[in-house]
Amino acid sequence: MFAISVAAEMVSMEIQNLRVYERRGLLEPDRTSGGSRLYSADDIDRLHRIRELLAEGLNLAGIAHVLTLEARVGALEAEVTRLRR
User: Fold this and answer.
1) What does the alpha-carbon distance between residue 28 and residue 22 come to, in Å, rounded to a whole number?
2) Domain span holding position 73
3) pLDDT of 82
4) Tens-digit pLDDT profile for residues 3-53
5) How many domains does the structure of the chain reveal?
6) Hey, how many other C-beta atoms are within 10 angstroms of the C-beta on 23?
7) What CATH number does residue 29 fall under?
8) How confident is residue 69, by pLDDT bands cut at 50, 70 and 90?
9) Would strands 2-3 and 30-31 be described as parallel, antiparallel, or unpaired?
10) For residues 49 and 41, what is the distance between their CA atoms, to the nearest angstrom?
11) Which of 10, 44, 8, 5 is nearest to 27 (CA)?
């Protein structure tokens, strides 16, 4: 688990951007009992994906749609695999 400053440095983003992404529902980091954000390795991967999509020219609304669709495809692929067993 990483503090917001470490997570921001790991993905070469500003701390404020990570807060915006959370407000927009693009990710949900865990919180300490004191309310500090804690980012997991999965959160870091998601931030890298957000950065890639931003570089491709998508806005935050478009990124939200892409992330939702990618999650849905992953769930469907897992279901197909389960049913084939």
Assistant:
1) 6
2) 2-84
3) 95
4) 999 999 999 999 999 999 999 999 999 999 999 999 999 999 999 999 999
5) 1
6) 9
7) 1.10.1660.10
8) very high
9) unpaired
10) 13
11) 44
Chain centroid to Cα 40, Å, comes to 10
Contacts with 8 (C-beta within 8 Å, 6 or more apart), sequence order: 14, 15, 17, 18
Strand ranges of the sheet holding 37-39, from the earlier edge strand across to the other edge: 2-3, 37-39, 30-31
Tokens at 37, concatenated:
């954000």
82 CB burial (10 A radius; 0-12, 13-18, 19+): exposed
Indicate the angle between helix axes 60-84 and 41-55, nearest 10 degrees: 120
What integer best gives the mean pLDDT of the chain?
96
